[in-house]
Amino acid sequence: MQERVVEYRRVAVFGGVYNNAQALRATLEDARRRDVEAVFCLGDMGGFGPHPDRVFPLLKDHGVLAIQGNYDESLAQGKTDCGCGYTDPRDNHFARISYEYTFANTSTENKAWLGALPGGRRIRLGAHRVLMCHGSPRVINEFLWESATPTGLLKRFLGQAEADVLACTHTGIKWHRELPEGKHAVNVGVIGRPENDGSSNVWYTVLTAGPDLSVEFIPVHYDFETLARQIEQEGLPPEFAETVRSGWWTTCLENLPSKERSRGKF
């Protein structure tokens, strides 16, 4: 069956909710104030945070158009691992704790909802053909870092997909690269945890059609202290709460390329 492609003028896009219902609520309220026509989530509803089932009513009630991330795929299929793609033992240690907690506290109904999400989406923003995916168009958990992703690879992805704009997430750090012939690659960031920059806010992206595509990264300030306290009350690692409060990543650092890691504290 041929995919139906809907055309919009202005949309909000985010990834990596990571069980952060406080940030999700604040993001949705902010996006609606910016006159967007639709809100898209590029996957990974779970991870790091407490009370995973609290994000699903917000996603559903606000009509968020979501796709499946690796975390969602693992939860839906009953896997024993989040499939995050880490290779370092310390990264995998914290990823295992986070995934086991999220798996145990996500309802059967919500796991089924995650399992029904598509693996990607296509939309049009005016003349721009947009391809949305979680990691990359070829692998759900591929990390497309700003410093380590060749422009030639991005051009190849867009050419193979017959698209003008690639929107992805998964790395946890936003970036935008303008490509030849009016094409774009946009890592839309995540709203589940801060960006390893010493600030407690998180980020999402607004894309607006025009003669060229407008890409705006929007900071979201939310009640991070409540989130941090809930992490502690649920017995999750104190490192997770420290990241929420400080804005510096304390876990899942080892797969960062040197350029991205040098911007952080650890």
Q: Helical amount among residues, as a percent range?
A: 25-40%
Strand arrangement in the largest pleated sheet: 1-5-6-7-9-8
Question: Which class best fits the helix and strand makeup?
Answer: alpha/beta
Beta-strand segment tally: 11
The helix/strand order is EEHEHEHHHEEHEEEEEHHH
Task: State the separation between the terminal residues, measured CA to CA.
Answer: 48 Å
Q: Which descriptor suits the 3D outline?
A: globular
- What is the CA-based Rg, rounded? 17 Å
Biggest beta sheet attributes: 6 strands, mixed
Beta-strand residue percentage: 15-25%
The average pLDDT value, as a whole number, equals 96
Low-confidence stretches: none
Number of helices: 9
Oligomerization: single chain
Describe this protein with a few key phrases:
single chain, 266 residues, alpha/beta
Description:
With 266 residues, the protein is α/β, with parallel strands linked by helices. It is 33% helix and 20% strand. It has a six-stranded mixed sheet with strand order 1-5-6-7-9-8, covered by helices on one side. It has a five-stranded mixed sheet with strand order 4-3-2-10-11. Helix 3 crosses helix 5 and helix 7 (224-233) runs antiparallel to helix 8. The chain starts with 5 loop residues before the first strand and ends with a helix. The relative contact order is 0.19.
